[in-house]
Amino acid sequence: MATLREARARVIAQPGWLDTLDVAVAACVRAFVEEEARETPQGELQPLAWEIIFDVIGEDFAETHFANRKRNRKLLEIPYLVPEMRVELCREVEMRLLAFMKEHLAADASQASFVKVCEQLALENPTGRADTLGAMLSADLAGHGHDLPLALHVGHTSPCTLVADRDKWVSERRESRRALLMACQGRSLPPSMRKYILTEALVREDLVKACEKHILQARRERDAVANWSESWVARSVADALRLLRTDADALGPLDFSHLETKCKQVLELHSQMTGRQHGSLALPLFMLLLDFPFESTANLLAMLERLREILPPRARTLQFAQSLWARIVDHAPDLAGKVRRVIEEHRAAAAAVEIEEPHVLLLDWAESALVGCVKINVARYVWMQSLIPGLLDAEVPSWDLDMFMSQCVKIFCLAGESIGLAQSVSELQRAVREKPRNLSTRALREAS
Q1: What pTM did the predictor assign?
Q2: Nearest alpha-carbon partner for 51 in 125, 153, 145
């Protein structure tokens, strides 16, 4: 931190004393870390907490005295941490560390004078609020078990001073949340941030409780089917897995047997709860399971039902596909004209055709919310961008259909070269089905 560096420059007179001071301060920082770690449930600090501490003590000092500690400097940057919160967190850790140093270095007069200079400089440069870190340890996320990335703490669990002024705290918390969500727009997000957004958008306490009651009833009545070998559930899950397995890079070493069993269980329970079969939800459900592989069945069931409510319903997928095609016509009229000519020529030459209108090519995109139609990371990006506007502006979180449609248009146009080369309906279907799966998230982010 600037305070330590400036104080060091002001009080140092002899190189020998500098070495002694550095050793004493380094030992004090280690003791500070140990004390803070004891206050955490895990008994150790989070990686972000370490980066905040290193930011406070300065890179040179950290590299000299903590060279063996693994670093991850990206945690201090967007989207993990907005600049304003980084300043506030560093300020709080700085003040806490100064208090700790004052207590532990007071026995040596020269070291005590160093601490006094640090305190004076800290008072001269007041940036940030007291106990901001404690304020970010609010209880509203704890109920879901998914921490907001900027709320990752350095082990401090003392009562929060800002809670005394509840209205002010709520206002400031809302602004911090909004700033973070706005910083996430147009960006690929880390798992912790995806979990936060999905939780905020899809988890409703009343729906979770209703799902818990249904699960208990199903268990009592033994309605939860244990053998799905010949059911629509088995077919839907098998089809979904077949599509997802093509994206091995994104999936990594997953336990597919666990995911498959969980997906079947949740789909079956959802069918019993709603009285309808929703095979098209298998792909979106797998998308949730990739980020929440060990989530409770009740939470997954509630998230899936909420997702069904906010995605285009099956009865409106045709309408959505028609609207999407109309937007493609406006955005890329030449490409749209080529597609229509191929379909019309085929229709004129054949008595019966599988595709009579171009929008039919896009029905799968609407039904699966792009899962299985593009790479998993691309689908994740589109999902996040479609959910963030609803968290920012709507009273009830929703799926922004306009944003989703905009991303779909970009994907279609990015695959446009291959789609435009199709000479038959079968080639057209293959191009629309296969080429979008080769697109990268970066290409989509940078597309105009």
Answers
A1: 0.63
A2: 153
